[in-house]
Each structure stands twice: as structure tokens, then as C-alpha cells.
Design goal:
two-stranded antiparallel sheet, elongated
Amino acid sequence: MKKLILSFGLLFCFSVYLLAGSGEVSDFNALQSTSTPVAPPLSTPLYRRQKPEIGFEVSDYSYKELGQKTPLRPSGQLMKFTGVMYGFSRENFNRGYLRDPFFTDSQIRFMFGFLDYDGWKKKDLKDNDYHIPHKEKWCPSFYLDTRKLVHYPIQVPNTHIELYPFSGLGYRLLWTYLGFRFSNYLYIPVGVTYKCQCKEGLSFDIRGEFDWMPLGLQLTGGIIPNIQLNGYGLGLSGKISKKIGNVEFFAGPFFRYWNIPKSKTFKFKIGEDEYIFHEPKNYTQELGIKLGVSF
């Protein structure tokens, strides 16, 4: 799966290189010197007033938790989930009023998969350490990511290139049946999208972003809360789009990464017994491809 995704990503980069190197792409000054009439650069943003976009995604997914290093766990790894995730995404670009330079972008993504678990478990709830090796296959897991962004389009003079700085507010929900755990992340994305209209009906985008997570809440068993603070994520994606009539088809690779620190400790007593819970530091990596259509 990783080889397929990497091959697709390399093909995407090579296609962008060919398009960017073509005399028909974006070197407007060079084209202007020829005797053939050339259309002026786009004076309005490439995104229309409203542009719904629907995509199908598949990714190689990895989630790892780290704890203290021990003789049994010299790497400190408590457990990991790995496997393939499948899902869909939907975006809706709303340009708003023509005199307003800003426009909004509503996004939602749902990914689901049966992942392999490799880790440890406690003998009972009173244990303060995980020391029994445990593996399990076909663990159902999903995550839901929804956010609202605000973009500000910037036209690069004398080119068909535009930059779209953006920011907004996002919410991410991660669930796995093993331990019946719900991870809730509230985050603030900040990034920029590079968009170039290469030829008639053909364009490519590259988007990079940083996601700051000021607050997270882990619910284990659906009832045991652990608060997480100051995590972050990174995202990088690209796509090539081809417009045919009023419909635009697109494809491209993406990479997503999350780094979430150890949570606050939660303690409670039942009779004379005291129980201590915390969410370990965890990492998520996701490398995939996306295919879709916009209207």
C-alpha cells in the first residue's frame, strides 16, 4: 500500500514539474513576447462563488503511543494501530459577496478501517504498568474531522498563480473499540494554498498547513476523562484538476501528522482502592491519495 501511494505521489510531482515547465503554463511574460495573442492573467479568483467538492480517500494509517522505557519496552512504545483507512471528504467553497475578498470553506472528512493492534495490556485495573504483550487484528476504528476555514485570495501579478492564506477552527474525533476510547481534539489550522491554472481546464494545487491543538479530551471507556494540552499537527497535500464541461475531476496525494503530548492524570477511588489514568503521548501518521469531483 505504501509503495502504491508513494508511486502516485511521485507521479503527481513529475506531472506538476512538466506542467510548470511547459511554455503554456504560467510564464505570462514569455508568452506575451510571441506573436500569438495571449489571454491576460485571471483577474478574479479561480474558485467560483460556490464550489462543492466530493472526494474518496484511501491511506496507510499509523497511530502510536509512547510511555516510559523499560527492559520489556526499550523503545518506550506502549502500543500501535496500523492498517489501511478508507473514507470520503466533502468541501464547500463559498465566495460570498463579490466585493468581499474573503471566502469561507466548510470541510468534513470521515475515515474508517479495521486496524492491527500491537501492544501491551494490564493484568487488572490496579496495575500502574502495561506488562502483558497483546496483539489483535481487525480492530474497527474511525475518525471524523470537520472544520471551518476563512481564505484570503492573493493574485500574483502577470501570472495565472494565486495564493490562498487561510485559518479557522477544527474538531477531530478519533475512536477505537479497543478500550472504547474517544479522542476529542479542538484545533486551529493555519496554512496556505498555492493554485496555478496551467492550461485551459487544467490546474494544480499544493496546500501546506500547521494545526495547533490548544485543548484535547480523551474519554476511556466513555467515562474516564483525561485533558490534553498543546499538541500540534502538520498537513501537506496536492492535486491535479481537469475541468470537463461544468464538472472538474481531480486526484492527488496527502500526508497528515499529529503529535499529542501526555495528558493530565485522572484519579478516583472505589472503596479503599485508588485508580490512576492518563493518556500517553501519541503520534499519528497518514499517507494517502484522494480522488474526487467538484461542481
